[in-house]
Amino acid sequence: MSLTKINASAATLTKNRTEGAISQLSGMCATCVDGCIGMCEIGKSAYRGHEVIYPQPFGIITSASEKTYPVDLSHFSILGTVVGAMGIEADSNKAIFSNVDLERKIGRDKGIKVKFPAIIPGLGSTAIAKNNWEGLAIGAALSGIPLTIGENVCGMDPDSKIEDGKVVYSKDLEWRVNLYKEWQRDGYGAIVVQANIEDTYLGVQEYAISKLGVDVVELKWGQGAKDIGGEVKIKDLKRAQLLKKRGYIVLPDPTKPNIIEAFENGNFKEFERHSRVGMVTEDGFLQRVKELREAGAKYIFLKTGAYRPLDLARALKYASKAQIDLLTVDAAGGGTGMSPWRMMNEWGIPPVELHSLLYNYTKKLDEKGDFVPDIALAGGFSMEDQIFKGLALGAPYCKLIGMARGPLAAAMVGKTIGNAIELGEVPVYVSRFGDTVKEIFVTASELEANLGKRFDKIPPGALGLYTYMERLSQGLKQLMCGSRKFALEHIARDDIVALTNDAANISGIPYVMDLDEEEAEKILSD
Question: Model-level pTM?
Answer without folding.
Answer: 0.94
